[in-house]
Amino acid sequence: MKKKLISVMLCAAMATTMFSSVAVHAEGDDEGEIYMFISQPEYADAITALIDEYKNVEPGVTINYETTQNDYPTLLKAKLNSGECPDIFSSTSGKEIETYKEYSLDLTGQPLVDAMDDNVAAAMKDANGEGCYGMAIKGNYFGLIYNQDLLDKAGVEKVPETMTELKDCVEKLKAADITPFTSGYAEWWVFKHVFQHFADAASDDVQKMVAGFEDGSDSLENYPILTDNFFEFIDLVKDNGDQKPLETDLSGEEAALAAGKAAIMIGQGAWVESDLMKINPDLKITFAGYEDVEAGIVKWPMSVIRLDGEDPDKIIELADKILGAWRGYTDEDAYIFAETDGEPHNTITPIARMRDGKYEMDLVLRNNITTEEHPLGLYHPWEQYHNIKKENIGLIEVMGLAVLPARLKGEMEELAEVLVAGGDIKAHENIAKHYDWVQTFIGKYDINADNVHKILQDEIGDVFAKILECAGVYKRDEAGKAAFLKFVDYVNAQ
């Protein structure tokens, strides 16, 4: 049997997403090699798992996987110029589709393209608006990431949304003797990410604006949001941040934010979340007899105990002890019951991974008890959020990725049209259920055709965060923390 060895160019859209384009370079027998050179080392575990699954299908194919983050574009171009073309590599979508087009396969006509979202397929076209030179790999959002505890300490009541508000926030942080920023300017992508936000704000057609800059038909001077706000922002961060901003890299940013040494990090996004949670769990705890296992309560809407260590057997043994204790645990004051009428309620969702050579396990405490007010579950999406989601919270959602019902796609399209037209939501059967939800946010916005989809997306995200809070058995307040520690004491007493 003949097979095709495919080469994938992973492309990150300038706006918010990361994509990949696929190119065929060789045909051969069932045996062969695939060379992967990909940025985003934070996804190494997931890619390794994917490779293992692929080997179950094609055991004769060897996959050589290499990853790096620092100066990836330069290294990739050096490989291409030397003739060492990786079979799978990553880049950004949009303009860079054209840069790497000669190494990529036009997927037009392939079944994969039919399954793509229209917006994804559009981002994979070449400069002439033709072909399909990539496939979606992941979505990323980036911007300012802030330490809420430090903002609260400084008396910042509202997350800044304008330059004026940001300057006011900086002054309050300085008055509280808190360093406002950590910059990460040593990383090549930070300036690009920051610039992108101001470019999006400056023009409704960013591609046309950039093309004008390149051919000389347009100028930065015609876009005051760029000439004023962008450079003002860069200087504001420089003057109120790291002592050596051009030498601060991603790890330095993460350490400063998580340790409470700086309030705001810039140019980063969802990819730093796991590192931040690792650096600063909400509360360190100890389990008797397992002092060699690092344990902590994770700062997360759900109730999570994290275990880290070099001995997997020790971690498994402690996790099993915690599970056994939880299954039999009752705390009436916290409305946690191990069983009612013979029906058990307590269980755990485990999440295991390797990180920096250590074994790590998250134990998410779950409880399925029902009440008259919440017949589907007290620690389940509450009824006021059922217009968005009423299904159970599973493993993927526990980790923070919303798995939403397919019906929402059509409902949000219809809702967007009605909102822009100023229509009556209740008069539309499919979206009437969303009326009460819309009333909670419609007053905050001047809704139009350009922003309605982004507004609905953001508001759905807020609902999902509240749903995760519903599923947390210990709420994130002083009473919840005390009750959580009471359970830890219970485990230690066993």
What does this structure look like?
The protein is α/β, with parallel strands linked by helices and 494 residues long. Helix content is 39%, strand content 20%. The strands form 4 sheets. A 6-stranded mixed β-sheet has the order 4-3-5-1-2-6. A hairpin with a 2-residue loop joins β13 (339-340) and β14. α8 (188-202) packs antiparallel against α10 and α11 packs across α12 (273-279). The longest helix is centred in the last third of the chain and has 20 residues, at 452-471. The protein is globular, with a radius of gyration of 25 Å. 28% of the residues are buried. Residues 1-29 have low confidence and may be disordered.
Give me some keywords for this one:
alpha/beta, 5-stranded antiparallel beta sheet, 18 helices, globular
Radius of gyration: 25 Å
Classify the oligomer: single chain
Tell me the strand percentage band. Answer: 15-25%
SS element count, helices: 18
Number of strands: 16
Tell the overall outline. Answer: globular
N-end to C-end Cα span: 60 Å
Fraction of residues in helix: 25-40%
Mean pLDDT: 84
Question: Low-confidence segments, ≥5 residues, pLDDT <50?
Answer: 1-29
Structural class: alpha/beta
For the largest beta-sheet, the strand count, sense and barrel status come to: 6 strands, mixed
Strand order of the largest sheet: 4-3-5-1-2-6
